[in-house]
Structure formats: C-alpha cells, structure tokens
Here is the input.
Amino acid sequence: MTAPTTAQPRARGGRAAGPARPKDRRRRVQHPWAIVAFVAPFAVMFVLFYLVPIGVAVWQSMLVVEREGTFGAATEVFGGFQQYAIVFQNEAFWTSVARVLIFGIVQVPVMLGLALLFALLLDSPLIRGKKFFRLAFFAPYAVPGVIAAIMWGFLYSPNLSPFEALTSQVNLLSADFVLWAIANVVTWVFVGYNMLIIYSTLLAIPPDIYEAARIDGAGQARIAWSIKIPLVRPALVLTAVLSIIGTLQLLAEPQTFRSFSSAVTSTYTPNMTIYATSSIPNVSLAAAFSVVLALATFILSFTFLRLTRRKGAQA
Amino acid sequence: MSTATGPDATSTSPAVNPRALARGGSAPTARGPRESILSRTGAMLVMAIFTLYFLVPIWWLLVASTKSRGDLFSTNPLWFADFQLFQNIAGLFSYRDGVYLRWILNSILYAGFGAVVATLLAGMCGYALAKYRFPGRETIFNVVLGGVLVPATALALPLFLLFSRVQLTDTFWAVFLPSVVSPFGVYLARVFAEASVPDELLEASRLDGAGELRTFFTVSIRLMFPALITVFLFQFVTIWNNFFLPLIMLRSEDLFPVTYGLYAWNSTINQFPELRTFVLVGSLLSIVPLIITFLLLQRYWRTGLGTGALK
Here is the structure.
C-alpha cells in the first residue's frame, strides 16, 4: 500500500480480508485471555464514557418534566419526540446553526488554503530557515482556545490594542465583525497544526516522482499544482473533516468573547445554546439539542468524506 | 502498508525517505530549473509576514505581563516599560491563597495523568487489534473509528447527567475519567503496531516462554514507543484544552483546570479590574508547560501527524 488512502477503505479492506481466511484457522482463537486483558480496559471505559452517554442523551431527550404546581415535586415522564418538536421550532438554535455554517464556509477554506500554501512553501526549495518557520507557525497551537480568545479579545479592545490605528476605526467586537474576529482566533490557533499534517504528508512523497516534471522544465508552482496537491488530497480531506467537526462544536472562543463583546449572546453557537439550556435547567431539551447537533456533525463530516471520495474516484 | 509512514520513518530508518536525507546534506540536489530571485523573495516575504501574524500576539502577551496596571494602558503595547513581571507573578501566586497554582496543578493532573492512562489503554487495545485475530475484531475497530467522529462536546452534557446520578459531579473524577478514553489513540496505536511490531518477534518471544502480557510490556511497548508518545501528546493537548467538560461539571474553584480558572477570572474582569494583570500573566504562564512539552517531544509528534493523515 504505497498510495495514500483514507481510513475508511483500510477498515473495509480488513473486513473483506476476514472471510477469505481458511476456516480451520478462524475456529480457535489463540491467546484469548491476553486479548481480553488488552481490549477490556479500553472497551469498558469506551462503553462507560462514550456509548452509555450517547444512550443517556437519547433517553433523556425523550423525557418531559411534569410538576405539581410551580414549586411542586418534579417527575420525569416519557414524552416521545416532544423535545425534538421544540428543537425544530427553536429559532435561536437554528440561527446559531446557520451562524456556525457561514463561519465554517468562510473560515475552513481560508485556514486550509493558508495551511496548504505554507506546507507547499516549506516543502519547496524557495525557503530558508524551514525549522524556524515550522516552529513559529505551530506555536499558536500550544495556546488553548480559551487563552487564545482572551489574548485576542485584549488585542481587539480599542484601549489596549497595539493596533489602535485599526481598532479605533473599526470596532472588531461589534455585532458586524465579532464573528470574523472569532474566525481569526480559530485560524490563528489551527493553521500551523493543519500545515504540519499536510507538510508531513508532502515529506513522505518519494522525490523521484518530481523528476519527469523537472526534466520537462516545470517550475515549483507547476509541480505543486499538478503533482503535490493531488497527492496530499487525503491529508486535506482529513483536516477538512476535523475542521468541520470543530466548527460545529465552537464553544470556548465565543463563550470567552462574551466578556469582551455584548454582541455575543448566550445562544451564539449551538454548543452555547446547549450549555445555556442545560443551566436553566432544562436538561431534556438540552439533551435533544445535543443529539441533533451530534447527528448534524456526524452527517456533515460523513457526507464530506463520501463526496470527496467519489470525486477522487472519477478523477 | 507503506513503510515510509511507519513510526520511525524520520528517526531511525532514513532510507525510506531519501528526500529527507538529501535535504540534510549540504550538497545541492538536482533541482531542475533554478528558481528565480523573484519567487524566492516573494516566498520569503509571505513567510516573514505570517511569522509576524503568528508571533506578535504571543510577544504582546509577554510584554503586557511585565507591566504594572497603569503602564498597561499608557505605554507602547509592543515594548517593555517598567519591568514588573516578577512582582506580577508574585501577586498572581498569592492571590486568593494561591488558587492559580492549584489550577496549574489540577491541569497537570488532569492532562498529564489522564493522558498517561489514556495512552496505556489505547496502546493495549490498538496492539491487540493489530496483532491478534479474533471474531469481532473489525467490529470493535469500526465502532472505535466511529467514536473518533463523535465530538467530545456532544458527550459533555450526557456525561453530566450520568455523573449526577452517581453523585460524582463537581469532583476530580468527573473531569478525569472521561479523559482517559481516546478512540483516536486506539486507531493510531493499531496503525503503528501493524507497522512496527513484527510477528516474527512475537513468535520468538513466545518460543522463549514469555507470556503475552509480558511480551507486550517488555518488547512491543518499546517498538511502539514513538506512537505512544504521539498518542500521549494528542490526548494531553485535548484534555488541557477541554473546556465544555469542566464548564458543565465543576462548581468548586479548587477543582478548576487552569484554562477554566482563567476563563472565570476573565468573565469578572469588569467588576474586579485588578484581575486584568493576573489574567494576562496567568495566560502567559499557562502556555509554558505546553510549549515545553512540544519542544521536548517534537521529534515524535511530527511523525505521528503524518501517519495519522496518510492512513
């Protein structure tokens, strides 16, 4: 397997290989106790902290609270899809979904475009001091989202900013700009991380692939466009899927920005809506929001994987 | 499996990546047409401008942390004034009985200890999935792979509901326990184990009479070491940056990780302006452990990133 492939075909290949094995070798599993000892610790934790919570969320989202009077004892009873009906009528939630989608449509391509550009430049003979640039560009990844948001929040604030010439002209924390101010924070943190993923993929490409192109007189730009970019497609798909998941889950940065900008409401992103709803508290509705959001994330990243794969197959 | 992407591609077997080797030497390699000065200058200019973009905010934080509250507003934001860094740090450490140090310690416990346990669990599971044939192997792997796509924040609320039933919310365990599960770690460990632990070695070890567990802990774990470092780092960063879980689980200040503590302070800055300096110095200091970890282990995680992307 020399051609880069994504995770899915691997898993499939593995499954397809299973039944092809001779029967007598499959009948008796060797070292069963060792297998249990290796797999069980992870499996138990995975079930407890991944599968059971998903089940709990689905179950909780089906419950409704009934009270006797305003302050009477609350009892939870099964209510079917009642919470989901509320979710689908909740305008604030869908506004927040639309907001992160617009955010993602702009921010993800910009970030991945920059990451690709930097990776290609690092991989080209045009650059000196590669090690320095690699570290400098990656450094923001060591800054947690909350801290990055605090830093940039100060940098955007007119009275503290080193870029007063800009911040006194344009209020980056106003309703018109704050979404893009947050997009800049996310881009700042993650460009270097994505750059490294793409760059590592470029390093793994055997150099003789470029020989023919060089003999034909192709320059660096041409080699990058016609050879390197098609070869790093799997890495681009991976970073895109991770970024899509990240975008829909946006929480730490906008939540932190609430202390800098009144334009960021408590339901600014879907995850903030979930948090706000859960602390009202209306856990059943919050659970329904969670389930819808998790499904949306799953479907979106899965669809993206499928679409890019089909395109790749045609090419 | 492409050997070029194995865990030791850049560290121990450079032969699989001749280009990396060629680059290390100073001899000019065949480059075809020489690149024009124009494109060289253009490329360097792009890199220089973005270096400023990435580093100026961190530089600003460093400078701001050295200033007194008054100087913060009245002096050049990008250059030092009266140097007060150590007074500021002392102030931060003694504020409210040193709660900041407590937060740093909590973060190190959550992220350090959590990532060690996560790495061990993921390493063992991935190793078993790579090296043993048993029914349900692919099913387990596919379920775990699906787990990679489940966003951690989607789990935070149901975990809260679960923990509140067993009275574990607002405890250390509420943040720690969910952090020890790393589906991505299992996936990486499996890929690495397939690439770097030869079956012949396991057979030889069995012939010598070593048990399976012993073989894993004395032989295989060493071969998988670069992979395990990568898993550790991924999980360390994930836990260190985790925001939703502490936000939803914790009420007692004593249990906060440092990022959440700083978030809490930052939210009350308008009522308590003296916190501004502490938030800035605290942010600067909180970045240091991660930067040190990255620098110490960068040889390993760079390889890991590439493998994760290729498979």
Remarks:
- The CA atoms of residues 18 and 24 of chain B lie 10 Å apart.
- Chain B is about 70% helix and 0% strand.
- Confidence is low (pLDDT under 50) at residues 1-32 of chain B.
- The two ends of chain B are 9 Å apart (CA to CA).
